[in-house]
Amino acid sequence: MYKGFRFVGSLASINEQRIMQRTVIEQLLREGLKRRAKLLDVGVGDGRELETLLESETVTKLLTEVVALDTEDWLTDEIAALPNLAEVASRLTFVLGRAEQLACLFEAESFDIVHCGFVFHEIPYGKPKEQAIKGCFHVLKRGGFLVYSDMFLDNQLSDKPQLEAVRRQTIQRLYGQYLREADAALKEGRLTKEQLEMLRGDSTKPGLLKSMNDALSGEDGFYESLGVCIDRLLNVGFVQLRVYPNRLNRFLYIIVGHKPTEEDNNHV
Hints:
This protein has 12 helices and 9 strands. The N and C termini lie far apart (39 Å). The protein is 47% helix and 22% strand. The strands form 2 sheets. The chain has a 7-stranded mixed sheet. A two-stranded antiparallel ribbon has the order 6-7.
């Protein structure tokens, strides 16, 4: 469910988003936390977000431990073999689970940074999304940061019927062409064995085609507006929210939320 779809959006804007995430986390480590830190990557997927993050010497040096969470473990060996991840292998742990289960999987105040890259749009609307956000807040140490990176709908759309209608249009645009091209490639036998496995999946893992068709049918989560997301983060308890827009794609943003310390609360 949380696999990192490399084809979502333009490649340039996705790469830009990954670099933005790295820059933001570098800044949080140097200027926000000002100490070595423990990071939780929720929905590690194929590891590309984490790999880009660990290209930074600052990040690699200042992270004492990295915990990578995902619903499936079939890419674990591949992710661990990625060059930048191999360098921190002794500090890298994989955990099987869902974002909605964070509060059950980890003790309270376990991490300094929780990173969620292109994850929340795949979590079903309603209680699962609420549980995931509350879980992020629960596992963060006081003074820690949530780095929430995703695609959002236009801000003026705030009620569920409108969101659902635009979500379907967005998914059709993003996935429709890919599905058509993949279908043609399958019929013409133009795919490698690895590409076939990724598309079709097997008895142990779903393929990308099933994941995308689930999204098209509305059985997956969906994109919400930036305003709705910000309200949810504030309601859970995050403060000092900062929003970073992607200069190449008006739907992509990074939101940074701060979990207040006791001192912060005393000044409210």
